[in-house]
Records
---
Amino acid sequence: MTGLEQVFRDEWSRVLASLVGFLGDFERAEDAAQDAFTIAAQRWPTSGMPANPGAWLVTTARHRAIDRIRRDRTLAEKIQLLPVPEVVVDDIDDTVIKDERLELIFTCCHPALPLDGQVALTLRALGGLETAEIARAFLMSEETMKRRLSRAKNKIRLAGIPFAVPEARMLPDRVDAVLAVIYLIYNEGYQGRVDLGAEAIRLGRVLAGLLPTEPEVLGLLALMLTHHARRQARFAGDDLVLLDDQDRSLWDDALISDGRAALDRALALGGRGAYVVQAAIASLQMREAIDWPRVVALYQRLVQLTGSPVVELNQAVAVAQAGDPAAALRTVDRLDLGRYLYFHSTRGELLRRLGRRADARAAYERALELATSTPERRFLTRRLEDF
Amino acid sequence: MQYALLIHNQPGIEEALPEPERAAAYAEYLALADDPRCIEAAQLQPVETVTSVRMTGGRTLVTDGPFADSKEVLGGFCLIEADHLDDALALAARIPAARFGGVIEIWPVVPR
């Protein structure tokens, strides 16, 4: 990415947010922002970058938007179409640009939008990704992604989805919705060519800056940072490397300490929600000597919060690591997760430790049947070769 | 902007509530109709009384019952003027049917 591209990427959401607030219309705002960035790309390389690029972009975009509206209005008057909404031109302040990114986030992640639309719109509006990049990340055609985005923007306009921070009563649910979108983006990060993991972390950092006292926001950020810190160590070529066997020198220390700091702040704010607990677990697992009984206790809390059998499965793994594979197996056998790959691979591992080799082998074979990705298949095949 | 709130409920559930709860729900419906944002509100007769009509090949086809056959039926509607979707959502969430197994659909109205 060039210097100019970096500035554009950094300024895009702030500029777009300000324009949506000003124009009250997503589509118009995006067109105007696009205009301003195009002009900047032509001028800045020769005339130099203005002192305050964001303010320059917003002001230019506003002028362009007003020009467009005037043009449209003349056209509309000529062919006697519906009236074009009025825009107040006088209150343009060239120096102070209010940060309206939080409003933008809540609009993009409004639960009235379909989830795939929320994700795409968040990446476009907040992340500043091009439609083509988003399409690539989700292994879809650009045309399909364009339609998805325009459906979402249409609904915002026609259904009157507000450009606002929700009132206090709705806020906790809406923050949860935003976090779910960001985490979904993070978890998609391992698929396509665009680094959605890094993108999700960027969004998480922005959100943590805008909502600095929400522990779950910090919890999610800490969780993503901690996982992301290990991304280089998770694979050796095409092979999946488990935590125990990872080369710690490949871990990203800067991300680890950012993650630790975010987690500490979340805990200091009294955070005990699902993301904070998951971040705490991930953080404990980064230690040289892992305190498994503490991990088990944290999983217990997470089971209470989520009621998820997958979490119970992970807790069972921690129980085994804490020294009781028999108890872990009893828990696992209660779970109704027969179609889940990790259920079978976990059972296989527990049975192996308990010396039940034939049963272990059968479990690993079942896991292999369910494996879809190459690294998973290779990993399980290697496990089976050990028998 | 205007929204139509379509109140779908499961027939009989609210009628079967214990008296104090039923009276409370009824009072809530009345309060809703009196809300300044509410332009028009109506409760509908039971589904057994519904008639559908369509034109096929120039002939009028009249049938008994609603168009869509589902467990929930349209029990009433409300036309409201709200600032935005969140405003409409807050109002819709207060409709008693929403907590008695029913669903409120929020339809934006095409401006005239």
---
Amino acid sequence: MAFRLWKKAILMTLREKKMFTVFILIYTSLIFLTSLFMQLAFTGNLGGIAGFFVLIFFGVSLLLSLLYAWIIVARNRRTWATLKCIGYTNSDINSLVTGKIFFTTFLGFLIVIEILFHYTAGVGYLQSANLLTGIPLVLIDLIPVIFTFIPFLAVQIIALLLANRKIYKVRPIIALKKVGE
Amino acid sequence: MPIDKDTMIEAIDVNKEYRRAGAIIRALSDINLTIKSGEFVIVQGPTGCGKSTLLNVLSGLDLPDSGKIIFDGENIARATEDRLSKIRRQKIGFVFQDFNLVPTLTAIENISALLWPTVLREKEIENRAIAALRDVNLLERKDHYPVQMSGGEKQRCGLARAIVHRPRVILADEPTGNLDPESEKQVMDLLKKINKDMETTIIVVTHRASLSSYADKVISMEKGAIQKIK
């Protein structure tokens, strides 16, 4: 049952094209940049400033995830209220919201993996062709990407807790009020 | 108190007050009411007379301050939220004035959505949704989004969603409030047909006196109290 609701959450997320695209782009950029700076921190390039950037990106991702969760609940309040009216429990709606949040994060991660293939190929080509020799090009290992993804997932759990609290407060009676009332 | 087996909903000494800007508003005052299974009931009255509050209380969306609501033999006035959700999913269909269709879902998905949290298989859900769309003459619009439908079609889609789980009661809050006269007639005729064919109890809240011809029972309300039942 929860599995079906997660599947439907993915469907609903994909149809909210504008918001989905904006957040997926930001997540992808954040995961990529965090992985890059974590790689720089591991290899000792850029010194301590790389670690500082990693912390900043984690902070931004936390804020962004909270914002995404808040938007999902607040923008769709009438939808959640209607679903409660027709018999959805808080737990059913939480399954939908969980599906939406985790799908966006996972897809961001998968896009980063895809981008890394192209990035690695690009860096390899530029190095072998002796182009852009003045610019230090860094290859990103899989380990910094995984180390980035785990805290990103943890951040989503915090966002989910916020979303769950907000969903609990949505009263089904809102669905019976007139639009704009 | 023994409950007649034909009784679908019974309100006993129901009171409800709201506090607004420091003032106490008596939304429902000593409501006693019996709605029989298969009845078509219209609740009428001017704006602010308490008819929507009555609908909310009868469906368990809002709780009375005192009194009992016996819904299909069960007092729902003190039921838990999960129990109320289950009752609504199994026994009640809602029709809203503003349709309340999910904009990112097609007509058939909006109708199926009610059955997603159930144990029914996808194919069975789809079959039921198609049957509901056919019942409201909207099958050709099954893959259309709400934005691609007219007001009357949206309301018929809302009606299909209200019957897809074969509820015992349909509660409609101003279902024709946003419709032109032709669509209003279509929606009311459909409600009457559902009432006759499926023996579903229908409760319609409206301020339009012209709709009373559809009803077996008309409840007139004023200032939170029932003025007359005919």
---
Amino acid sequence: MPPTPMTRMPEPALEYVPIPKSRYTGAEFAALEWERMWTQVWLMAGRVSDIPEPGDYFTFEIGSESILVIRQHDGSIAARYNVCMHRGNRLREPGRGHVDRFSCLFHGWQYEIDGSLAAALDPECFKQGVPADQLSLRPVLCDTWAGFVFISLNPAAGPLRDYLGIIPEHLDPYGFENWKIAYDCTVEIECNWKTCVDAFNEAYHLSSTHAWTVAFSDDVRTVYDCYDKHTRMIFPEVQASPRFAPPGTVTDEMKEMFLKRVGVDVENFEGDADAARRAYAEAIQKMAPMLGADFGDLNLSQMCDDFHYTIFPNITFNTHSLFVWVFTHRPHPTDPNRMYFDFINLMNTPSQDIPRPDKEHYSTARGDTLDGKCAGGDLLDEDLYNLPRVQRGMNSAAFEHLHLGSQEVRILHHQDTLMRYIEGGA
Amino acid sequence: MTGGDRAEEAALAWHPVPVPVPAEGRTCGFELAGYRLVLCNALGSPYVLHDECPHMRVPLSGGRLQGTVLECPRHGGKVDVRDGAAVERPIRRSATCFAVREGAAGIEVGLPAA
């Protein structure tokens, strides 16, 4: 497989203009987003591995819509609106499950797993008839990439591959199809969905929000690349920030949090930071047979660093050689000051049988914390702590617009792409 | 073994379950001594319930388990197979559970003695 392109992109031709806060706080702008963006783009709905057999389904909630994603008898995957065509009842509650047929609780209308109307109670009482061609579940575009299911509410959306642009070329070398879900949660956060996307789109916040991480990750030498709709950030790990230690230093934290964990003899390790990174990568390579993983298509940077991709509008990949954190940031159906943050941790352990964990549900309004809930939960918790506070501050009369710097170019680019949809240029 | 204290056990008639234990997370319906029952494999342990959803009285067999929670295949209501407790609507009443034990010839279910 061709390796992930490492070529840097030229600085995007974007002006560092003020970003109006109304895009983050206003119901009017949120309505425009729904009409002109959310209902037009491709959206990540879930994992293929969650619906292995015909009749297996999961729901995908986006805005005011609920979509059923269903494995078909022929092995394909189809998506249908989760709406009974009789009186509009939701057919299934949010979550995963299995059916032979979908049966509406309200009056018992039944649908085959391909969405076709199978039975209506007392059909003779409908003098106008019960035409199956008009009363079957409404289809939704559906496709897959890398073991992820995507849907689009736009029946005229082009192919998923075209929408994803550079993403498959960049991420296929990781082979996500066979990675296993090790953690799954959704957190309702009191902030706009973009407040959350933005928080993960720069390393500028590292030295303050995650002050302890500069001992083993490098916010200063992080690089940012902007593509058509999507963006990348290569965030060095197993490498301390020059804010913390001179370049080349092997810190105790690098030893403890990286080298030791993959079996490097840190007591007798001698060498500079480059040697530490090579030792870390070599140790992971040795784990490949045990994990069933293939690191052959990854370079040294990919073995050590976070290859961080944002797929427009709302998908974040924190990609590492051993795991990837995948976030989706979904808008609240009515309140621009609330959103849903989905987090799955996929492990690069194709040959290991990891039981599929149940999804956990949290809420910042309840004061829930991810600290201790999963690997890296403490790190994420520091972001989740900020987000409602950022949103509340944005709503202040004192705050009018975002004032972005060059390390926040991905936020600027995300806004530019969003506005292309809003203004009709996408 | 699940369910029942010693006094209740004494009033039970133990019957071999006439179907093999299904794969983990799966169910299997069967009839025994006039009862319609469903055998569930929840996390590797067998549980037997009355094969009737407390909501619409349709069979629970064919439903799938997540952990110890069985989803009714008709409307998606859920019960905990350990005690039959309703977990998710539209199921609001408990399902009936029966005691299970490992017998000489395999899984046995304790039904009320005639």
